[in-house]
Every structure is written in C-alpha cells, then in structure tokens.
Amino acid sequence: MSMRTQGLVLGPSSSSPIQNPKTPTFLTPPTYFSSAKRVWLKSNYSFSSHSILLASTNLRHRNCVVKTEHKVVSDIEEDNLKSKVRRKNLAVFVSGGGSNFRSIFEATLNGSVHGDIFVLVTNKYDCGGAEYARVKGIPVILFPKNKDAIEGLSTEDLIVALRSYKVDFILLAGFLKLIPTELVRAYPKSILNIHPSLLPAFGGKGYYGMKVHKAVIASGARYSGATIHYVDEHYDTGRILAQRVVPVLADDTAEELAARVLHEEHKLYVEVVAALCEERIIWREDGVPLIQSKENSNDYR
C-alpha cells in the first residue's frame, strides 16, 4: 500500500474470533457416563470486522498507515500459525470457585487460547466452578467416586470418559485431590497444575489455599508467586514449566498476598495454556520443559 493512499481499509478483527463449531454446548448430569442419551446443540459462527480510516497524508498519518499495515500482517501471520495447528480439547479439574478455570474459558472464546474446554471434573459437584460450567453448557463429571456414593466415576471410568471427549490436555485449577497414578500414566506430559507459591518452596501435601500464603508470610520470605508445573504421582513435585514472582510486603496479610498472587495466576495460566495449545512447549535434553516464544522461535523461557 502506498503511503499516499487515502480512503477506507478493512481488516480482520482480532477481538472477534470464530468459535469452534465442534465445541459441545450440552449439559450433562454427574452420572452421564452410564446414560446413552445426550443432547447436542449446534454452535454458531460469529463474524465481525473493523475498519480503519486513513484521512490524511501528513507525517503523523503516514506513521499510522505504516503501523496499521504491520498490525494486519501480524494478524495474518498469527492466523496462519494457528491454522497449521489443530485446536486442542481441554479438561479442567476444580474443587472451588474456579477463577483460573473461568479465565482460561474466556481466553478460549476470545481467541487467546487455541483450544476448547470440553469437560470439567470436580470432587465437589456444587462448587462455584461446577456451577459456572453448567451455566456455560460444559459437561461436569464428579470424581473421585466416594465409597458410599452412587454418583461419581472411578479412575478407570474417568480415563474412558476423557478419551471419549478426545481430551488432549488436563488442567488442574484448584483441584485438591491427588491425581491417581493411572491417570498420570494415561496422559504423560499432558497434565498441568498451578500452585500459589514459587515451588519447590511451600509445596507438597497440606500446602494449599490460604495455608500457603500464611506459611510464606510466617517464613519471612520477601518474594512469592505462582508456579505452573507438570503433574506426576506426588503433590507439587513435577517439572516446573513457568513461574511469576510477586513481592511479599512487610505488612502483608495472607488475604492481601493471596489476591496479589491470584492476579498473576490468571494471566500466567492463560499464557501457558496458549503455548500448550499452539505446541510451543519444548523439552530440553535434561527433561526440563521450556516455552518457545511466539515472536521468535529461537527464544525460550
């Protein structure tokens, strides 16, 4: 485009993604796996475009033309990158309000994450995360099955259910149960967890929720943060994939520190899941996972 060009330039909107038509939008009771009846609702495509008005040829507007052209090219390159990678099917595990689950779900809708949440798994069927999933039409599975309960799935049935949804990755977002060895082996290098401290500090059995933040403050640590790691057969011992640091202030309460860490969790988890779905996780020879930069394939973090 000439820098003298005036008029109307139309470009694709990066804020209005096309929703995946294969995303199921049906409701499922906790005993869905024993039922042969399922209700499927078709998803609708959503299109929009934006326009950019170039009305002058002075230097200031010429700069706008150049920046606009670069933005359009950037959008096209990103779309081409995603078109070469299949959208991933995600399962999220929660035990509470599921704020990280909500952040990831919203990111799948706005195009930040090249994947879709096909099912939510919870050990508390009436928790906030499960209620949100049902409102959004995401199937909810109760796991693990209690000894005296009729509802809920065994580990074996859960694996079969996840495979029926063709789940690629499992994301733990405040799930307070230890993941069974059988599930870890069924999904090698495919299960992530987020923990509200800088692992390996303040991790392991018993370190969850507000207990973590109280322990951090009591220790005198000057920094805390969020860690995303791969899940193995133990609590919080899998390979670390990403971390985000926050300061611990001299007069912090556990609640204040928790809020600061959670704010970073929401951003970090979306960034990591985006890299996961775009197949930008690279494993170093010594077994350490790294995230490949979207802008430069030779940069890692």
From TrEMBL:
**Compositional bias segments (type: Polar residues):** 12-22
Tell me the superkingdom of the source.
Answer: Eukaryota
Which terms are listed as keywords in the entry? Chloroplast, Plastid, Purine biosynthesis, Transferase, Transit peptide
| Region of interest called Disordered, as start-end residue ranges on this chain | 1-22
Query: What InterPro entries does this protein's entry cite?
Result: Formyl_transf_N, Formyl_transf_N_sf, GART, GART_AS
Tell me the enzyme class.
transferase
GO BP: purine nucleotide biosynthetic process
Q: Where, per UniProt, does this protein localize?
A: Plastid, Chloroplast
* GO CC terms, sorted: chloroplast
One GO MF annotation is: phosphoribosylglycinamide formyltransferase activity
- Which EC number applies? 2.1.2.2
Can you state which reaction this protein catalyses?
N(1)-(5-phospho-beta-D-ribosyl)glycinamide + (6R)-10-formyltetrahydrofolate = N(2)-formyl-N(1)-(5-phospho-beta-D-ribosyl)glycinamide + (6S)-5,6,7,8-tetrahydrofolate + H(+)
Q: Which residues form a coiled coil?
A: none
Domain (Formyl transferase N-terminal): give its ranges: 88-273
Instruction: Tell me which Pfam families the record gives.
Output: Formyl_trans_N (PF00551)
HAMAP family reported in the protein's UniProt record: PurN
Similarity-based family = Belongs to the GART family.
Q: Specify the protein name.
A: Phosphoribosylglycinamide formyltransferase, chloroplastic
Which source organism?
Forsythia ovata
